[in-house]
Amino acid sequence: MSTKLLMDHKSASSPSTSLSLLERVRTHDQEAWERLVYIYGPLVQHWCRKYRLQSQDMDEQFQDVWGAVFERIGGFRREQDGDSFRGWLWTITRNKLCDRFRKMDQQPQAVGGTDFRAVIEAMPDSEPADIAADGASPLVENPAHRAARLIRSDFEEPTWRAFWAVAVEGRQPAEVADDLGMKRDSVYQAKSRVLKRLREELDGLLD
Questions:
Q1: CA distance 20 to 69
Q2: 121 in the same domain as 168
Q3: CATH code assigned at 154
Q4: Which of 1, 105, 121, 172 stands 20 to 30 A from 10 (CA)?
Q5: How many whole angstroms separate alpha carbon 41 and alpha carbon 48?
Q6: Gap between the Cα atoms of 69 and 82, Å rounded
Q7: How far apart are CA 195 and CA 92, in angstroms?
Q8: Which of 141, 143, 154 is nearest to 194 (CA)?
Q9: Would you say residue 28 lies in a domain?
Q10: How far apart are CA 45 and CA 51, in angstroms?
């Protein structure tokens, strides 16, 4: 599914990379916008599939959600404990899904006899879990991991590999140091450097 949305605005010139991704998106930076959709697009797709959206409607729904995000991103704020970008994004997705299901419910013959009102009523106000029924594995990739891949080129390969092995794969620093021929302190430093950069990039987006 395409994640590139059509926009009528003219992209502003790219601001300093010292700005967070959220700040750059708010300046209508095209590259930043595409990064945001890349990071969180699979989550939106997952939600749409979870709530029985027909495959032929997925692309249109995806566009509807991200069009609303584009219009409202300037007003997104984390003002209370528990506020999150994911929660805000779920609210937009939920509202757009409800709009679509209400329209479908008004059609003379609902697809497959689906009770769309029941589907709407079953949707939670807060973000639904994205974990498999057995709790063993996520059903959608962690947005932070996708974001990390976008900054991979900012680091030398050993630094990146050390970070990924420890922070994502959960391996022990001593083991990673042996595998990569690095000092243990260097592994800790690599993890710290990449995490620092990732937090700066995703400031305001991650919990």
A1: 17
A2: no
A3: 1.10.10
A4: 1
A5: 11
A6: 20
A7: 29
A8: 154
A9: yes
A10: 10
Among residues 137, 163, 188, which one ends one of the domains? Answer: 137
Q: At what angle do helices 173-180 and 184-201 cross, to 10 degrees?
A: 110
Range scoring the smallest mean pLDDT among 37-51, 111-125, 189-203: 111-125
SS percent in the chain: helix, strand, coil, step 5: 60, 0, 35
Give the chain's radius of gyration (CA, Å): 20
**Within this chain, do residues 170 and 195 fall inside the same structural domain, yes or no?**
yes
Are 184 and 87 within one domain? Answer: no
Q: Are residues 128 and 46 in the same domain?
A: yes
pLDDT for the residue numbered 6: 38
6 domain residue, yes or no: no
| Residue that terminates a domain, selected from 102, 121, 137 | 137
Are 113 and 29 in a shared domain? yes
Residues 70 and 32: their CA atoms lie apart, in Å, by 12
- Range name among 2-6, 9-13, 82-86, 114-118 with the lowest pLDDT average: 9-13
Task: Give the model's confidence band at 4: pLDDT under 50 very low, under 70 low, under 90 confident, else very high.
Answer: very low
**Are 171 and 182 within 8 A, CB to CB?**
no
Greater model confidence, 20 or 14: 20
pTM of the full structure: 0.80
Q: What percent of the chain has pLDDT over 90?
A: 54
Pairwise CA distance, residues 205 & 207, whole Å: 7
Q: Each residue of 98-114: pLDDT tens digit? A: 888 787 766 655 555 55
Q: Are residues 159 and 181 in the same domain?
A: yes
